[in-house]
Write a structure and sequence with these properties.
The structure holds 2 protein chains of 2 kinds.
Chain A lengths: L4 H10 L6 E4 H11 L4 E4 L6 H8 L5 E4 L3 H15 L3 E5 L3 H5 L1 H9 L4 E7 L15 H5 L5 E4 L6 H13 L5 E7 L8 E4 L18 H13 L3 E5 L1 H5 L3 H11 L3 E3 L14 E4 L6 H9 L2 E5 L5 H4 L10 E6 L13 E4 L2 H14 L6 H17 L13 H11 L5 E4 L3 H9 L8 E2 L10 H11 L5 E6 L9 H8 L4 E6 L4 H10 L16 H7 L3 E5 L5 H10 L5 E6 L9 E2 L8 E2 L7
Parallel strand pairs in A: 2-3, 2-4, 4-5, 5-7, 6-7, 9-10, 9-12, 10-11, 12-13, 13-14, 15-16, 15-17, 17-18, 18-20, 19-20
Antiparallel strand pairs in A: 1-8, 21-22
Chain B lengths: L1 E9 L4 H11 L6 E6 L5 E9 L2 H13 L3 E6 L5 E12 L3 H12 L3 E5 L3 E8 L1 H11 L4 E13 L8
Antiparallel strand pairs in B: 1-3, 1-4, 2-3, 5-7, 5-8, 6-7
Classes of the chains: A alpha/beta, B alpha+beta.
The structure holds thiamine diphosphate and magnesium ion.
Chain lengths: 592, 163
C-alpha cells in the first residue's frame, strides 16, 4: 500500500467520494435514525433487539426512553409526533413486545399520525417455525399501518428506514412498521454504510397542489354564501395550516367550528369560533352546521361522531371538501366541490385568489346569520348546573384554563373528562390539544403527556384524565420519575367509567353494568407518592383553586391532582342517535 | 354492478395480502381474483371482479390506489374490454353422454383435453357467463369437478395498463 491515510482522504475528496464506513446492521439502524434527525426513541428491550440496544449504548446522538409497557412507548412516540410535527420512533422486541404496541399503532393510524415502529423479529431462518417470541407482526398490524416492511437483507436497512420515514410523514401521514430479524443486526458482520438522500417510489406519489379550477369554484361558492360555515379537522393541525385557516376565516368573517381533532387549528378564544361540533359539540356549532347553505370542510373526514345520521346531515348545504387523501372525499357524505391537495397549499392559493377577486361576501346575509348564531350561543353556551358542595368537572377545566393562562399543552384520555377538556379549555394554537380522537384509546393521556414533554420540554403539560383511564397506563409514573417528566395529572375522579355510565343512564334505564368499582379504587395520593411524586387531593369546591395553583407552581415535579367530581354529571350537549346535527339533548331534561 | 378491476403492483411478498386484506377489512367482496407476474418481473398484474354501488366501487379504487405497492389500476368495466376466464371441467362421460358432451363442448369452442373410459376433461375459455352457460348445458348431474381461473381482462384498442 504505502499510501498515508491523509493521502487517501485527499484523493477521496478530490473524487468526491465518501469515506466508506463499515457498520453492523444494528449500527446502521442507529446511524440511519441519526441521519434522519431522530434524537429520542421510545422503547423496551428484549432478545430480538439486544444487538440494537448494544449499538444504542455505544453512541451519544440518540437518547432512549425506557418505558414500563410498550403500549406507552407507542403513545409517547405518537404524541411526540403530534406535538412536534416530526416523526416519533418506537423500538420493541419481537412477540409480546411487538404485540404490546398494537393499540398504540392503531391509535396513531386512526388519527393519521406519522410514526415509525421498529420491531425485532426472530432470526430469518426461524421465521415460520413458531420460534420463541415469534409473532407475524407485519400480518397483525397490516390493517392499522400506512405501510410496513420486513427487512430481508442487512444492506437494505438504511434505504428501508429512509422509505419508512418518507412514507410515514408525507401525504396523509400514518404509522409505518419496520420488522428486522435478529440475524440482520449481528454485530460481527459489517457492511458499507451510506444513507440515501432521496427516496423514489414509483408506486407512491404525493399530490403537491390542489386543482386551481376547483379552488376558484370554491371561492365563488363562498362569496355567494348566505349562511356559510368552516368545519375543520385534524388535517389543518397535522397539515400545518392553522395560520392560513385563521387568515382565511377572518378575511371572510364566517363562523368556524372544529372537530375534536381539529381543536387549536383555529383560535378557541376568537369570536368567530363557535366551538367543537358533533356528538358533544356546542349547540351553536351543531345548529349552524344544520342550517348552513355552504359548508367548507377542511382536513376533516365527516366521521360518524360529527355527522350524526348521514342521511340527515346538513340538508340545505353545498359542501366543499379539501383533503390530502382522495379516499376521504365523498366517503361518507357526497361533496359538491372536492379539492384534493395539501391543506396549506390549497388555503394559500385560495387566499391568493381572494386577493385578486372583486367579489365581496354578502355582508347583509352574514349579519343576519351571525345574529342567529349569537342567539343560539346565548341560548345554551355550554351552561351547566352548579351545586354548592359538589365540584363539577366543567368547573375544574375552567379553573385549569385560568391557572395555565390557556397556554398549557393538554393531553387527555377517553371519557367524559375528555369531552369536558375539549369543550371548556379554549385551545389557542395548533398541537396544544393532544387526544386520541379516532380510536378513543383509554390509557393514551399519561404517555402522551410524556411524549409532549420530550418534544417541548419547556412547556407546561397537563393530562386531563379519569380514574378509569389513568389506571390503563399508570405504570408510566415510574418512567416519569426516571426521566423527570413533570406532568400535571388532573384526575377528574367520578368513581366510575363515567361515559359508560352516562350511556347506561340514558339508554339502559340506569342499569350500571360494570361501570363502577365498589370501593376498590386505589388511594391515588399514596400511589403517586410511592412512585416518588407529589399527590394532592381535592374533595371540596373551595379547595380547587389553591390546589391547582400549588400543583402548577411545582414546575419540576410530577403532581397528581386527584379531584373528586360529581359522579352523576353528564356531558351535554349530546346528539340524539339517528337524528340530524340539530337533534340534541341539552341537559338531563331538555332536548331540541 | 359487477366490475373488473385490473391492478399493476410491485411483485413483492406481502403485496397480495395487502390487497386481499383491504377487501375483508373494509367489507368489500371479491368474486374472483387472479394474479401473476408480467413481462416485467418486478411487476404483477392482478385482476379482480367485485360488485357494489358506484360509491362503493369509487371507494374501492381509491383505497386500492392508496396501497403503497399498487402502481396503477384501472376499472376495465368503465370502457370496452375483453374478459376471459379459463375453466377445466371433469364430466361423467359414458354411453350416449360421450357424444352429447363432445357436441356441447364444440358448440362452446371447448376442447376435450383428457379422456378416460368414463370421464372427459373439458377446457373452456371465455367470458364468465359463457362458462356458466356451458355448465348449465351439460347439467349438474354430469359434473364431477370444476376449476375456474377467475377473470383476466384487458382494455380494447390502444389503451394499455403499463408503466
Ligand atoms: C381501552 C378502552 N377500553 C374501553 C373503552 C370504552 N370507554 C370509553 S369511555 C370509558 C370510561 C372512561 O372512564 P374514565 O377514564 O374514568 O373517564 P370518565 O368518563 O369517568 O370521565 C370507557 C370504558 C375505551 N374507550 N378504551
Ligand atoms: Mg371516571
Amino acid at each position: 500500500m504505502g499510501e498515508s491515510a491523509s493521502g487517501a482522504d485527499a484523493e477521496c475528496s478530490r473524487l468526491r467520494c465518501e469515506i466508506v464506513e463499515l457498520l453492523s446492521g444494528a449500527e446502521m439502524l442507529v446511524r440511519a435514525l441519526k441521519d434522519e434527525g431522530v434524537e429520542t426513541i421510545f422503547g423496551y428491550p428484549g432478545g430480538a433487539v439486544l444487538h440494537i440496544y448494544d449499538a444504542l449504548f455505544q453512541q451519544k446522538s440518540i437518547t432512549h426512553v425506557l418505558v414500563r409497557h410498550e403500549q406507552a412507548a407507542a403513545h409517547m412516540a405518537d404524541a411526540f409526533s403530534r406535538c412536534s410535527g416530526t416523526t416519533g420512533v418506537v423500538l420493541a422486541t419481537s412477540g409480546p413486545g411487538a404485540t404490546n404496541t398494537v393499540t398504540g399503532i392503531a391509535t396513531a393510524y386512526m388519527d393519521s399520525i406519522p410514526m415509525v415502529i421498529i420491531t425485532g423479529q426472530v432470526q430469518s431462518d426461524w421465521i415460520g417455525d413458531d420460534a420463541f417470541q415469534e409473532t407475524d407482526i407485519v400480518g397483525v398490524t397490516r390493517p392499522i399501518v400506512k405501510h410496513s416492511f420486513m427487512v430481508k437483507k442487512t444492506e437494505d436497512i438504511p434505504a428501508t428506514i429512509k422509505k419508512a420515514f418518507y412514507i410515514a410523514s408525507t401525504g396523509r401521514p400514518g404509522p409505518v412498521l419496520v420488522d428486522i430479524p435478529k440475524d440482520l443486526t449481528n454485530p460481527a458482520v459489517t457492511y458499507e454504510y451510506s444513507y440515501p438522500s432521496k427516496v423514489k417510489l414509483r408506486s407512491y406519489n404525493v399530490v403537491s397542489k390542489g386543482h386551481s379550477g376547483q379552488i376558484k369554484k370554491a371561492v365563488d361558492l363562498l362569496m355567494a354564501a348566505k349562511r356559510p360555515i368552516f368545519y375543520t379537522g385534524g388535517g389543518v393541525v397535522q397539515g400545518n395550516s392553522a395560520a392560513e385557516l385563521t387568515e382565511l376565516v377572518r378575511k371572510m368573517g364566517f363562523p368556524c367550528t372544529n372537530t375534536l381533532m381539529g381543536l387549536g387549528g383555529f383560535p378557541g378564544d376568537d369570536p368567530l369560533f363557535v366551538g367543537m361540533l358533533g356528538m358533544h359539540g356546542t349547540y351553536e356549532a351543531n345548529m349552524a352546521m344544520h342550517h348552513a347553505d355552504v359548508v367548507m370542510a377542511i382536513g376533516a373526514r365527516f366521521d360518524d361522531r360529527v355527522t350524526n345520521h348521514t342521511g340527515k346531515f346538513c340538508p340545505n348545504a353545498k359542501i366543499i371538501h379539501v383533503d390530502v387523501d382522495p379516499a376521504s372525499i365523498a366517503k361518507n357524505i357526497p361533496v359538491d366541490i372536492p379539492i384534493v391537495g395539501p391543506v396549506d397549499q390549497v388555503l394559500k392559493e385560495m387566499l391568493d385568489q381572494l386577493e385578486k377577486t372583486e367579489d365581496k361576501p354578502d355582508l347583509q346575509a352574514l349579519e343576519a346569520w351571525w345574529k342567529q348564531i349569537d342567539a343560539w350561543r346565548a341560548y345554551h353556551g355550554l351552561r351547566y348546573e352548579t351545586k354548592p358542595d359538589v365540584l363539577k368537572p366543567q368547573t375544574v377545566i375552567e379553573e385549569l384554563y385560568r391557572v395555565t393562562n390557556g397556554e398549557a399543552i393538554i393531553t387527555s384520555d377517553v371519557g367524559q373528562h375528555q369531552m369536558f377538556a375539549a369543550q371548556y379549555y379554549k385551545y389557542k394554537y395548533p398541537r396544544q390539544w393532544i387526544n386520541s380522537g379516532g380510536l378513543g384509546t383509554m390509557g393514551f393521556g399519561l404517555p402522551a403527556a410524556m411524549g409532549c414533554l420530550v418534544a417541548k420540554p419547556d412547556k407546561t403539560v397537563a393530562c386531563v384524565t379519569g380514574e378509569g383511564s389513568i389506571q390503563m397506563n399508570i405504570q408510566e409514573l415510574s418512567t416519569c420519575l426516571q426521566y423527570h417528566f413533570p406532568v400535571k395529572i388532573v384526575n377528574l375522579n367520578n368513581q366510575s367509567l363515567g361515559m359508560v355510565r352516562q350511556w347506561q343512564d340514558m339508554q339502559y334505564q340506569g342499569r350500571h353494568s360494570s361501570s363502577t368499582y365498589e370501593e376498590s379504587l386505589p388511594d391515588f395520593i399514596k400511589l403517586a407518592e410511592s412512585y416518588g411524586h407529589v399527590g394532592i387531593r381535592v374533595t371540596k369546591p373551595d379547595q380547587l383553586q389553591g390546589a391547582m395553583e400549588e400543583a402548577f407552581s411545582l414546575k419540576d415535579r410530577l403532581v397528581f391532582l386527584d379531584i373528586s367530581v360529581d359522579p352523576t354529571e353528564h356531558v351535554y350537549p349530546m346528539q340524539i342517535k339517528e337524528g340530524s346535527m340539530r337533534d340534541m339533548w341539552l341537559s338531563k331534561t331538555e332536548r331540541t | 354492478m359487477r366490475r373488473i378491476i385490473s391492478i399493476l403492483m410491485e411483485n413483492e411478498p406481502g403485496a397480495l395480502s395487502r390487497v386481499v386484506g383491504l377487501f375483508s377489512q373494509r367489507g368489500y367482496n371479491i368474486e374472483t381474483l387472479t394474479v401473476a407476474p408480467t413481462n416485467d418481473p418486478t411487476l404483477s398484474r392482478l385482476t379482480l371482479t367485485t360488485s357494489g354501488s358506484d360509491r362503493t366501487i369509487e371507494q374501492i379504487t381509491k383505497q386500492l390506489n392508496k396501497l403503497i405497492e399498487v402502481v396503477k389500476l384501472v376499472d376495465l368495466s368503465e370502457g370496452a374490454h375483453i374478459e376471459r376466464e379459463l375453466m377445466l371441467v371433469k364430466l361423467k362421460a359414458t354411453g350416449a353422454q360421450r357424444a352429447e358432451i363432445k357436441r356441447t363442448a364444440d358448440i362452446f369452442r371447448g376442447q376435450i383435453v383428457d379422456v378416460t373410459s368414463s370421464v372427459y376433461t373439458v377446457q373452456l375459455a371465455g367470458a364468465s357467463d359463457k362458462l356458466d352457460a356451458f355448465l348449465e348445458s351439460v347439467g349438474e348431474a354430469s359434473i364431477l369437478e370444476v376449476v375456474r381461473s377467475g377473470v383476466s381482462g384487458i382494455a380494447r384498442g390502444d389503451k394499455v395498463l403499463a408503466l
